[in-house]
Write the structure tokens for this entry.
Amino acid sequence: MRTCYRPAWMFGLMFSAVSLPALAAPVPEATPRIIGGTDAEPGQYPFMASLQSLQRGDNDRERHRCGATLISPSWVLTAAHCVDGLLPPQLAVLVGEHTLKTTPRRRVSNIKAIHVHPAFDARDLLNDVALVQLKRPVKGVEPAEPMLGRDSAYLRPGRDFTVIGWGVTEFPGDARPTVLQTVQTPFVPFNACREAYPDLQAGTVICAGAEGIDSCQGDSGGPLLVQRKGRWTVMGTVSWGEGCALPGLPGVYARLSQGYVRDFLQATWMRD
């Protein structure tokens, strides 16, 4: 069993079906961040979304459940464990926010449909991806591009990925930022990652992180990013890991180019 650290709503749980890795990185002591990160600049990641639980709290920061990524005007990508078993009226998606406000504000669902990968396994978080279709398209925001082709050129030692989110900035702890956090997290080769997590299936995940640099609870579902041909490209989604930013225990991300995941995305996503 692993410690669930991704979703903001699962603090303190042990994770079997929802073990969350260290996607976000720990923030410096002076200014705590996504564990190792910094405040993002306003407008730096306009495609970043907050998946909000409408039954929890009365403001955006308290309602934040998971991260998500706008991949076309009416579609967002997130982790399956963030939405599995939930219905559209229970959730809302905020796109283009830099700061999650703490002032009370009523929100209603803007979600038309939730599509969880049909082979998602809540026990080991295999195929941990989902698509959320919005009722109305988001205007004026350039989406990120999911990596549905070969990604091997980006999975090499020395590669740093960008991870963003509003997850906790200390582990252990529950300090959560209002401002979107960003961090550069190093790629971890599969064989090294499997030393930490022996049950990993080859080709299904991407591992990244280092001591003091990771994602954490509340970052689940957010993107693992690279710059490709001048555009932000999503390589994976924050999925799980043991603790956050601990030595030898990298974050584990669902790999979008993996066959079953790619096929699901191509069959479900309508690319409006």
Notes: The first helix runs from residue 60 to 63. The helical segments are 60-63, 80-83, 190-196, 259-268. The radius of gyration is 16 Å.
